[in-house]
Design goal:
Blueprint lengths: L1 H27 L1 E17 L2 E11 L5 E15 L2 E13 L5 E14 L5 E10 L10 E10 L6 E12 L4 E16 L2 E12 L4 E13 L1
Parallel strand pairs: 1-11
Antiparallel strand pairs: 1-2, 2-3, 3-4, 4-5, 5-6, 6-7, 7-8, 8-9, 9-10, 10-11
């Protein structure tokens, strides 16, 4: 009986130490918040080609102006439900002195999707020189997403999961979890709100991104 009590006490102490350790690590996690607003304009000059133009403004934790960017994207659809694309992004980051540091981002991607009743799952892989952070490296990004067209509704919810593979160190840098919903205002106009969680795999750091945007097609 005494030996049983000693084992039970040891087990209790071990569990307590583990809980304290996990709690300590949880308290060390740094959480950043960012807020984004953008306008996306889409235009189809010819049948299988689409051009997207997206200006965006980003704000920091205290809603202070933090970044601006402009992105151009060209999407070519050689087959139904299959896309090839390229994009270029010019971004200005506000520094501590109040000046802006300009950066350039480019990406190449392939994407495939399929209509399954009211669901549309898609897979996308892209090569880019940025992970939307200050880290200077090259990445492969793997994204899986699915949206659902609600019957007799103008709302379309969407969720996605994206992995960022840092080619410089040949390891995964972060995961991005996204949930959002679009509301169709008119035939070619919609507004969307979303939330993204960037979960960094090599450090105790999370970024929470809240966004609102307006889409216009012509």
């Amino acid at each position: 009986m005494r030996k049983y009590k000693i084992h039970r006490l040891s087990f209790t102490v071990l569990v307590g130490c583990l809980l304290v350790s996990f709690q300590s690590k949880a308290q060390e996690v740094e959480n950043d918040f960012q807020y984004r607003t953008n306008l996306k304009i889409s235009y189809k000059p010819i049948k299988d080609v689409k051009i997207n133009f997206t200006p965006e403004i980003r704000f920091g934790d205290q809603f202070q102006f933090d970044q601006y960017l402009v992105e151009w994207e060209v999407v070519y659809s050689p087959l139904k439900r299959f896309n090839l694309g390229a994009s270029y992004q010019f971004k200005g980051n506000k520094t501590g002195s109040g000046d802006f540091e300009n950066r350039n981002k480019y990406a190449l991607f392939i994407e495939a999707n399929k209509k399954l009743k009211r669901f549309t799952p898609s897979l996308k892989m892209s090569y880019t020189n940025s992970a939307d952070d200050d880290l200077k490296s090259h990445f492969l990004r793997y994204k899986a997403s699915i949206d659902y067209n609600i019957r007799k509704s103008k709302l379309t919810p969407e969720i996605s999961l994206e992995a960022f593979h840092d080619l410089g160190v040949n390891d995964f840098y972060k995961m991005r979890y996204t949930a959002g919903i679009n509301y169709k205002i008119f035939k070619n106009n919609s507004i969307g709100i979303g939330y993204k969680l960037d979960y960094y795999l090599q450090e105790y750091h999370n970024k929470h991104i809240f966004s609102i945007g307006y889409k216009f097609k012509f």
